[in-house]
Write a structure and sequence with these properties.
Blueprint: E1 2-3, E2 12-26, H1 37-54, E3 59-70, E4 77-90
């Protein structure tokens, strides 16, 4: 199973779109600790691979990531990472 931000030149069949989201609460003492985003990327990539594999895909292409910082009035900030891409299956 592979993920790519580009298309794939080999003959393939499109299976549909897959998406995944992960979030992390930022405690007030670490409110500017954005290096935690690295773990979110790993989590989201693993979710994409798992979901695409369950659908019989060989890979996910044209993967796009969006990040967001959700500010709550009565709670800490949340780092939110969402990814989506197109599942493909190789034509054999």
């Amino acid at each position: 199973m592979f993920l790519s931000t580009e298309g794939f030149p080999q003959a393939h069949r499109i299976l549909g779109i897959v998406n995944a989201t992960s979030h992390l609460a930022m405690p007030s003492e670490a409110i500017d600790s954005f290096e935690s985003m690295d773990q979110l990327f790993s989590d989201v990539q693993e979710k994409l691979r798992q979901r695409a594999s369950e659908k019989g895909a060989d890979g996910v292409v044209e993967v796009r990531f969006t990040t967001n910082v959700a500010n709550m009035q009565v709670a800490p900030k949340f780092l939110v990472l969402t990814a989506y891409g197109t599942m493909i299956q190789f034509i054999k």
